[in-house]
Write a structure and sequence with these properties.
The complex is a heterodimer of chains A (322) and B (275).
Chain A (H helix, E strand, L loop, with lengths): L1 H16 L8 H40 L21 H8 L1 H35 L4 H13 L2 H11 L6 H8 L14 H25 L4 H9 L4 H29 L3 H6 L11 H10 L3 H29 L1
Helix pairs in contact in A: 4-8, 4-10, 5-8, 8-10, 10-13, 12-13
Chain B lengths: L9 H24 L4 H4 L14 H8 L3 H32 L5 H10 L5 H14 L6 H5 L6 H12 L4 H8 L4 H12 L1 H17 L2 H6 L8 H10 L6 H33 L3
Helix pairs in contact in B: 1-14, 3-14, 4-8, 4-11, 9-10, 11-14, 13-14
Classes of the chains: A mainly alpha (322), B mainly alpha (275).
């Protein structure tokens, strides 16, 4: 009985004195702090256990494996393998197919990211100030492809891109343009994948840009308009500079996604024709499939390093901006 | 209305309508195509409306192929993964937002540091781990690595930071234990954040591909995207009608879910930028 009343008194005292006040019952407060700490760890434990086993451990294990010649047959004895130093990495940098995959991935990112962002920004600006009705219906329509499975979308686009009976070449034909053999021609296969990825992903950048545009003070636009600035000038000299941090942010998350593109070539081209669409992730998966676990781990780390560098550059650019 | 406020320019509506049709066209064509036989799908020029619409492709999908099993697998995996993330991420998110404990900063920074780690970096050792645990080609093997994700912790922590701390003190005054305060006072107030996290996690799990492709090795554990991708490359690769029906089965449930919860999804994307 007495402990219960004491505890009540302590907590009430706590509330009145606040965290910095000293009360005679500080020993009891140490007790409640211990209780709080214990409860916090109980709450944190399930997450942390799963997180350690399935995220932290594999990150380090992957790094370890990348310096070994681990093969599929070493599955049961992941530590009884030969240490080969940086051999996997030097092999990657002289592996013609991997270098081809790296160039393809760079092509996908360098063309795909600006295209996706431009579409997203155009849609966001049009929806933000251009129209007054049906705004959320258009937003819903543009965002829909983002939530759908890339595999399903890739299966559908495979047919849309057919040379003879595909919908895209049929539409091009209405305007007298003879459509190429998109997925069969090494020069057109990558543009086809980029077109599909931009179609699927611009909705994400549109949503983030829309949120950013709401923070652009409309008074600035009004003042500039009174001074005779055209809509384009206001977009160029007011909207773009104020959106800069958001443009950087969106380009980084889009880039991180595009650096890992995998499903599109896996389903649509199998990396071909003539390796024109094989990506770094897909080549890593293929090496894993051949049982070259050590080599696959080193390739995955190279992708990781590229992503880390891109993210670091983004943070630097953001800091300089502030 | 001032001079530069939009009054709804008709040409912009026209342009946006054309754009929305272009964005939706592949899905409409997919659904219409799934009702056509392959011979019709190979016609030049292509037809838009099916000449003799039929559900044959769907019948085949669920009788000759086991799309019922794949559908069940995808659903079970997504539901369990979502439940795990809702529970475990909100627990840690609450501890990080409202409680003081030794090692709090270390935990926070460690979770933060892994936010950007892509799945392709960990799948090789993860496969070794899961294989040695005997979980290859099982549903637990598909679920376990995704039961928790750093993203959920950030979402929940941010939300709980916005709740008044007085709730905690009020609960303590009433003599409620720490875990009871979380379960009975904090969690019921987290509805909006849990809804956002739940729908985003479910979408991510339903569409997840690389890991199920690696772990699911026979038809009994295939998820829908894995089955669809493998059929599109295998002996059914020329059966266009069947593949379009398969794609429809993958896409339509998620579209319905998205339309029902679209406000939550869009809020989540706008605040975190991660899908």
């Amino acid at each position: 009985m007495s402990t219960a009343t004491e505890r009540d008194a302590v907590t009430i005292g706590d509330a009145q004195a606040g965290p910095t006040g000293s009360t005679p019952s500080s020993r009891k407060r140490v007790g409640s702090r211990l209780r709080e700490g214990r409860a916090a760890w109980i709450l944190a434990l399930p997450f942390l256990l799963l997180f350690l086993v399935f995220t932290v451990w594999p990150v380090f294990q992957s790094l370890f494996m990348s310096f070994t010649d681990t093969k599929a047959k070493d599955l049961r004895t992941p530590f009884a393998v030969a240490f080969v130093g940086v051999e996997n990495y030097t092999r990657a940098l002289t592996d013609e197919t991997f270098l081809r995959a790296a160039r393809n991935t760079a092509y996908f990112v360098v063309v795909g990211v600006p295209l996706t962002l431009t579409l997203g920004l155009a849609a966001a600006v049009a929806l933000d100030r251009g129209i007054t009705k049906f705004r959320s219906a258009f937003r819903l329509g543009f965002y829909t492809p983002v939530v759908t499975s890339i595999v399903a979308v890739a299966v559908v686009w495979q047919f849309l891109l057919q040379q003879d009976f595909g919908l895209i070449n049929t539409v091009l034909g209405w305007f007298g343009i003879p459509g190429p053999n998109w997925l069969g021609d090494p020069n057109w296969s990558m543009p086809a994948l980029i077109m599909m990825a931009s179609w699927r992903n611009f909705g994400t950048s549109m949503i983030i840009f829309l949120a950013g545009l709401q923070a652009v003070p409309w008074a600035l636009h009004e003042a500039a308009a009174i001074d005779g600035a055209s809509a384009w000038q206001r977009f160029r000299f007011i909207t773009i500079p104020l959106l800069r941090p958001i443009i950087l942010f969106v380009s980084v998350i889009t880039m991180i996604g595009y650096l890992q593109f995998f499903e599109e070539p896996f389903v649509m081209t199998n990396g071909g024709p003539l390796d024109s669409t094989i990506s770094m992730s897909m080549y890593t998966y293929k090496q894993f499939g051949f049982g070259n676990y050590g080599y696959a781990a080193s390739l995955s780390y190279l992708i990781f390093v590229v992503i880390a560098i891109v993210t670091a550059i983004q943070f630097r650019l953001l800091r300089e901006n502030q | 209305m001032n001079s530069i406020q939009a009054k709804g320019k008709w040409w912009l509506y026209l342009l946006l309508t054309i754009a929305v049709i272009a964005v939706a066209a592949p899905f409409i064509w997919m659904v219409l195509g799934s009702l056509k036989p392959t011979t019709e799908l190979r016609q030049t020029p292509p037809t838009w409306w099916p000449q003799n619409p039929s559900l044959d492709n769907y019948t085949q999908l669920f009788s000759r192929l086991s799309f019922g099993t794949y559908f069940a697998n995808s659903t079970i995996v997504a539901v369990v993964v979502t439940a795990g993330n809702l529970l475990f991420c909100s627990m840690l998110g609450y501890a990080l937002a409202m409680l003081n404990f030794r090692g709090k900063n270390v935990v926070f920074v460690a979770v933060l540091a892994t936010l950007m780690i892509p799945g392709v970096v960990t799948f090789v050792p993860l496969f070794v781990l899961v294989a040695n645990a005997g979980l290859v080609d099982t549903l637990p093997g598909l679920v376990l690595p995704f039961l928790v994700a750093p993203f959920g912790v950030f979402l929940m922590r941010q939300f709980i930071l916005g709740l008044p701390r007085d709730l905690l003190d009020a609960g303590r005054v009433d003599g409620a234990g720490e875990l009871r305060i979380f379960a009975r006072i904090i969690l019921p107030l987290c509805g909006p954040a849990l809804a956002t996290l739940g729908i985003l996690t479910f979408l991510g799990s339903w569409n997840n591909f690389l890991w199920p492709l690696v772990v699911a090795q026979t038809e009994k554990t295939y998820t829908l995207p894995v089955a669809l991708a493998l059929y599109s490359k295998g002996q059914n690769s020329t059966n266009y009608g069947l593949l379009l029906a398969g794609a429809t089965v993958v896409v339509i449930p998620i579209l319905l879910l998205f339309v029902a919860f679209q406000r939550k999804v869009i809020e989540g994307i706008a605040t975190t930028g991660i899908k």
